[in-house]
Write a structure and sequence with these properties.
alpha/beta, Monooxygenase, Leucine-rich repeat, LRR (right-handed beta-alpha superhelix), 13-stranded parallel sheet, 13 strands
């Protein structure tokens, strides 16, 4: 086996994708063990305290994942041993509802801006970062990422509750290549932060923006975001009563938007639906869950839309079967609708038959 050079072993191992087979090969001899480590492109870690035992083998890693408790020391080890990482997924997940107290104790020692600084300085090739639900992540950590990761294209800060408008100011002025930004549950974000995003270079690069549950924002902040000319996916779910039809009608002017989530915006009504039907020509997915002022009259306006494929109307109680029938028969591109199960009992069978004959699936939930 020693007569085979490393180059040949690399060619062999790169053709094997099954993790179990790769593990078996690594146990053949020391050469296979070493080469298998050098060709490993991704790992998912369940025991971070053992990083030093195996991470030096994987110097060519491109993707690192762990949903476990991670400290600054762990990230320092990662940065020193795996400088070629491109995807860093540290989204935190609780084990069960019985582990809440233990999780809270671990969070106290979770990584913060110091750990992120190690990563940002040591792994400059990173283009995708997921820090979802990491409570130690704040503005200083975001500054490190933006300052030292010029190739960053996707950043998930969902439920990082220390992230504020200062982070958005830095992101807006420094992330020229960012295409996806998730700020779900970042409750400190306000209209000022959104204005910072819209006035920087992101206005011509950002394609996906998630602001769900950012309940300090209002129509003013949403209007400032309409400067973004490349935005394709926009999520404003549960952003509170200060996002109204004023924002909805402004969003309708977007020519690039393809997916829009306005669920549980209690002050969004038919006026927004009509505006979107007339203005958002490229829209293919729309969610109005819980928008109680959206009625059958507004939904019928979508019959003239020529690109809509998916429509969610759960908890929209002012609809009838005839509204759905007119929508499905009129909007020829529509493929999928979600509505409340309780509505079905009030829809005449002949109407259901007419709907089912079309190429549109209705999900009654």
């Amino acid at each position: 086996m020693e007569k085979l050079g490393d180059d040949l072993l690399v060619l062999i191992i790169n053709r094997i994708h099954d993790p179990a087979y790769r593990k078996s090969l690594s146990q053949v001899c020391k050469q296979w063990f070493r080469v298998e480590g050098l060709t490993r492109s991704s790992v998912r870690i369940f025991e971070p305290n053992l990083l030093l035992n195996f991470l030096p083998r994987f110097s060519n890693l491109r993707k690192f994942e762990s949903s476990e408790h991670i400290t600054n020391t762990h990230l320092e080890i990662l940065a020193e041993n795996c400088p070629r990482i491109q995807v860093l997924n540290l989204s935190f997940k609780k084990k069960s509802r019985f582990c809440d107290e233990m999780d809270e104790n671990l969070i106290l020692d979770d990584f913060n801006e110091n750990g992120l600084c190690f990563i940002a300085k040591g792994c400059s090739c990173i283009n995708t970062v997921n820090l979802r639900k990491r409570s130690g992540v704040g503005d200083a950590g975001v500054v490190s990422l933006v300052s030292f990761l010029p190739k960053l294209i996707a950043l998930d800060l969902g439920f990082c509750d220390k992230v504020s408008d200062e982070s958005l100011r830095v992101i807006g002025s420094g992330c020229c290549s960012l295409k996806s930004l998730n700020l779900q549950g970042c409750w400190l974000v306000s209209d000022e932060g959104l204005k910072s995003l819209a006035e920087g270079p992101l206005r011509i690069s950002l394609k996906k923006l998630i602001l769900a549950e950012c309940d300090r924002i209002s129509d003013t902040g949403v209007l400032s975001l309409m400067q973004m000319c490349c935005l394709e996916e926009f999520d404003l779910a549960e952003c509170g009563p200060n996002v109204t039809d004023i924002a909805g009608e402004a969003i309708a002017s977007s020519e690039s938007l393809k997916r829009l989530n306005l669920s549980w915006l209690v002050n969004v009504s038919d006026a927004t639906v009509v505006a979107l039907a007339e203005g958002c020509k490229n829209l293919d997915a729309l969610n109005f869950t819980g928008c109680e002022f959206v009625t059958g009259e507004g939904v019928r306006a979508l019959t003239k839309h020529r690109s809509l494929k998916e429509l969610v109307l759960t908890s929209c109680e002012k609809l009838s079967g005839y509204d759905l029938e007119e929508l499905v028969l009129g909007c020829q591109t529509l493929e999928y609708i979600v509505v409340d199960r309780r509505l079905r009992m009030w829809v005449p069978m002949e109407v259901q038959d007419n709907i089912m004959r079309e190429n549109c699936w209705i999900d009654w939930i």
